[in-house]
Amino acid sequence: QKEVEQNSGPLSVPEGAIASLNCTYSDRVSQSFFWYRQYSGKSPELIMSIYSNGDKEDGRFTAQLNKASQYVSLLIRDSQPSDSATYLCAVPGSARQLTFGSGTQLTVLP
Amino acid sequence: EPEVTQTPSHQVTQMGQEVILRCVPISNHLYFYWYRQILGQKVEFLVSFYNNEISEKSEIFDDQFSVERPDGSNFTLKIRSTKLEDSAMYFCASSEGTSYEQYFGPGTRLTVT
């Protein structure tokens, strides 16, 4: 059974700061990792995927993967109030089914 | 931009009734999924579907649940006899053949009274 653990937060950062979100996973053979953003009452929205060790940048978002430590993180630079949401880490299984973490609630303070 | 759609957005039903939740996945996607999220809890996998058959199901997906792709566009989740604990948001998702990235629909809020 895959386990995906996230700090539940809440995490508060001031506008313009860097928000750092962390996720650990139990299955050493996992090859893909995803970050979803979920606004209250809405569905998960895919914002980043990462497949290999190191950093992947997309605009203000950077995903970092360390397979040896079974750790994946998401950095949000220049945080905006519109980034306030719950961020979900997800790992696929053998049939592509996603196991989600419980999410980290982020609040960006104006 | 193509997107997954779901109907209805909100369904209220009485305990013991059957409900059908409908989804139209992105048109060139090959893999389809249902997830649910009870208020305040994690998103949980229910079932995945590929090549007109179930490829994986969770322990939540018991005999009360079924899925169907009745035509080339719709993907449905049926709950035969709803229970109070089935109250949740139900999300449909789809992915391409070459990528594991899944795109979610807006969800159906199911309320069982």
Structure overview:
The complex is a heterodimer of chains A (110) and B (113). Chain A is mainly β. Chain A is 0% helix and 55% strand. Chain A is built from no helices and eleven strands. In chain A, strands 2, 4, 5, 9, 10 and 11 form a six-stranded mixed beta sheet that branches. Chain A has a five-stranded antiparallel beta sheet with strand order 1-3-8-7-6, with no helix packed on it. In chain A, 35% of the residues are buried. Chain B is globular, with a radius of gyration of 13 Å. Chain B is built from no helices and eleven strands. The mean pLDDT of chain B is 96. Chain B has 113 residues and is mostly beta strands. In chain B, strands 2, 4, 5, 6, 9, 10 and 11 form a seven-stranded mixed beta sheet that branches. In chain B, strands 1-3-8-7 form a four-stranded antiparallel beta sheet, with no helix packed on it. Chain A binds chain B through residues 32, 34, 36, 38, 42-46, 49, 88, 90, 92-103, and chain B through 31, 33, 35, 41-45, 48, 50, 55-56, 58, 89, 91, 93, 95, 100-107.
